[in-house]
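Table S2 (text version). Query chain:
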Amino acid sequence: MKRHFVLASIAAIGMALSATAAMAQAADSALAQARAGGLIGEQADGYLGFVPGAAISADLRGRVEQNNIQRRQLYTRRAAERSVSVNEMAAAVACEVFQRPRIAVGEKYRNEAGQWRTRSAGAALEVPSFCAD
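Corresponding structure-token output:
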């Protein structure tokens, strides 16, 4: 119950954060290309992840890790402002990413169960269960 309340109360913040994260990703063409190429994808925990079996260069690995560090810093600041945990803030952003699909058709994503999927035009994304309807 508390989790749904927290997620609902910070949905607007989550949307702003995910838009910020999306802009940061768009600015880095290497990340955008890696997403389109199926090497990396969004995860239900609010961070980027590496698709198993993908050939990840050291440069790309560093860019993803830096992106995730920046996301965690942003989540930490916003969580402190809202008196919620960093994980709750990250989850709120993940909900925005999955509910208002910022995952393009053909891109990979990791669902709540830890399985990697490819978004297809005809199928809905697997929205994490902790996301408010």
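Notes on Table S2: The CA atoms of residues 27 and 119 lie 22 Å apart. The mean pLDDT is 85.
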